[in-house]
């Protein structure tokens, strides 16, 4: 996956849009900072998540952090493999470590998210 | 406890018990369940050995586990018997019912009934599993917490009704044994009497163990067919399981005590554990103020002291509560929301185990210690632990509450490194935002 296609929020989640379907995951920077991921908790298919609102939790050896949604939409699919193998996020944050897919309500919501370059700059500057 | 304490004070004591010595705690509760959970814990640790560079291969021999459990119960029961003999306590096997406030009839299936008299009587008849309307157990596929202790085979799937301490302990036990577990609770969270944050962390841990949680719902019907049970939930969904465990609470064993013969209908007590009838005391689950073995023990001591003319009062302020789940949960005093409602001026400190080196060494990093304090002196009025050895760690917090210690008092006590107990002093420091091993609280965006 080309990282240039991704958009990021300040809470270190990425989103990739294909048509009206958005895939959501945790950034490479965040998984690096978190360390070994122990578990990920997220809602099931059919649940609506809201931009800027926590929809789940990620637990690592260091901390437990809320997952704050970069976009509003209804969950179409979830990465069931994460239940048994949450380290997929460490191994491949932009690929096999994806968390969920949603049908996007307002495509314009993506405009306020950061590009890959902007996000890199954001993490270099510190939050 | 009461019988031995009484004999130690010089009283002539007779103890009547319909089963073997030891009561629910030893025969159907604390001890046998803890044995099964200890076996499951050892199994979990064996499976996790690889992280320590060890590989272990083996088979779970369930029958041996059950034999081991029975052996421990038997040893403990015989231990009580030996104590009784050493203190010259008369043990009568049978069911007792009052004839008058100072006379009891003891019924025994094998022998003729006999009548005894006593100047003072302490009723400690205990409790039994209770069901909910429409859900009846058959002792085979639909069972209660008594039946399930002797389950001869490990079920493939189980539905547990009730996510209190008993339900949650069995949920963890069965999930470790490889059973697919569904846990249903009418309240909004598992361990609903614990602090909300503790329940949240506990929910996450149960989900990590692949336990399916169905909160805020009830089972509306159970239908048995071809060796399986279909459980239907209030909202219409259903689940098919091999067994159902009903863990919805316990009822007081007041039937058959002959209370009608002494003119009372219940065993309500005052702070001296004395009932409405002078000279008759009641303690433990049959009173039901707190259905915990350690509360019953203390009530028994208080009752005996009063019965023998040494005034004593029961104090319920500092009572530890423990759940031997995975991870363990323990608490004393008020939850954060109870404290907020009662006092308003509270401050809370939290310290996660995952920050401690010792937790990483043990490979058990989930959970935290949370302390609730009140007033400008930050007196400790509640403490809540979820994590490794929570049920042991809680006692330092009980002592702190008993002496009305302030958070600062405990934070200044040197705790050995590296231990899990370091989390206690760090949680106390966190009350004022000064836990050494926690980053500064981020400035919240508004």
Instruction: Please state roughly what percent of the residues of chain A sit in beta strands, choosing from under 5%, 5-15%, 15-25%, 25-35%, 35-45% or over 45%.
Output: 25-35%
- In oligomeric terms, what are we looking at? heterodimer
Which range best describes the helical content of chain B: under 10%, 10-25%, 25-40%, 40-55%, 55-70% or over 70%? 25-40%
SSE succession of chain A = EEEHEEEEEHHEH
The strands making up the biggest β-sheet of chain B line up spatially as 8-15-9-10-11
Output the strand order for the largest sheet of chain A: 1-2-3-9-8-5
Uncertain spans of chain B: none
Q: What's the number of extended β-strand segments of chain B?
A: 22
The low-confidence runs of chain A, each spanning 5 or more residues with pLDDT under 50, are: none
Strand content of chain B: 15-25%
Number of helices of chain B: 12
Q: Show the largest interface.
A: A-B, 10 and 9 residues
State the secondary-structure class of chain A: alpha+beta
| Radius of gyration of chain B using CA atoms only | 24 Å
Distance between the termini of chain A: 26 Å
Description:
The complex is a heterodimer of chains A (127) and B (446). Chain A is built from four helices and nine strands; from the N terminus they run βββαβββββααβα. With 127 residues, chain A is an alpha+beta fold. In chain A, the strands form two sheets. In chain A, strands 1-2-3-9-8-5 form a six-stranded antiparallel beta sheet. In chain A, strands 4-6-7 form a three-stranded antiparallel beta sheet, with no helix packed on it. Chain B is 30% helix and 24% strand. Chains A and B meet through strand 4 of A and helix 6 of B.
